[in-house]
Design a protein that fits this description.
alpha/beta, seven-stranded mixed sheet, two-stranded antiparallel sheet, nucleotide-binding, transport, ATP binding, P-loop_NTPase
């Protein structure tokens, strides 16, 4: 099975059925025991980032609010700030433009209060050792989306990335992600999210890797997970067809 651009995929199934394991394989965090997985070459996309992973609990690093948004591009962001401090008018303008872009990503993610005066003690340059103590669970998840808006990759893997966010805000975030052209592969327990996905992959949890695919082309199924190569999509299929 392939996941071409624009073919948003929702993965559902009982707890322990392997949904997160599958996403970790797709994201390259785990190696498949059978078959292969392939994603488009980073050379084909501006910025070189093909895929982003948004877990249920996003990692927050020590540093500024700006660092949280541009992560994992911390080095590039700091280089821009150093150029601004050097006093070059062009560098100052570029840094200001970058900061405005970061602020807009935070606003889209529902975190505008941190850059629009709603929380006077916090701004882009505010540094904290433990952002986990500053942000609530829902705000941490929204920070993951701010990163997604900033990097705008062609693909994103969302592993219960909105579990601590209310449905209205959840829908707004999905609308923004899809509008920017990012194709999502999601795990979610709220079935209302089906409206944002073109296909649904139902994992049976039968211990044998059984699954069914439902979507625009109708239901299909096979006996087990394997992954095949493709030059232009995330792919999965039966090893017998390789």
């Amino acid at each position: 099975m392939s996941v071409p651009r624009g073919s948003h995929l929702l993965i559902t199934g009982p707890n322990g059925s392997g949904k997160t394991s599958l996403l970790r394989v797709l994201a390259g965090l785990w190696s498949p025991l059978e078959g292969t997985v392939s994603v488009p070459s980073p050379r084909d996309y501006p910025g070189g980032k093909v895929m982003m992973w948004l877990p249920q609990r996003p990692y927050l690093l020590q540093g500024s609010l700006r660092d949280q948004v541009v992560y994992p591009g911390v080095v590039a962001a700091e280089r821009a700030r150093q150029g601004s401090r050097a006093g070059s008018a062009a560098a100052v303008a570029a840094a200001d433009e970058e900061d405005e872009r970061i602020k807009q990503c935070l606003r889209m993610a529902g975190l505008g209060k941190f850059v629009d005066g709603g929380v006077p003690s916090v701004g882009l340059s505010t540094r904290h050792l433990e952002w986990n103590d500053v942000l609530s669970g829902g705000e941490r998840q929204r920070m993951g989306f701010a990163r997604l808006f900033y990097h705008a990759p062609p693909f994103a893997i969302l592993d219960e990335a909105t579990s601590a966010i209310n449905p209205d805000e959840e829908h707004m975030l999905y609308e923004h992600v899809i509008a920017q052209g990012t194709t999502v592969v999601s795990i979610a327990h709220r079935l209302e999210l089906r409206r944002f996905h073109k296909r649904e992959l139902r994992v049976s949890g039968d211990g044998e890797g059984g699954w069914e695919l439902h979507g625009q082309s109708g239901p299909a199924g096979n006996e087990k997970w394997t992954l095949i190569n493709s030059s232009n999509a995330l792919c999965m299929d039966d090893a017998d067809k390789i």
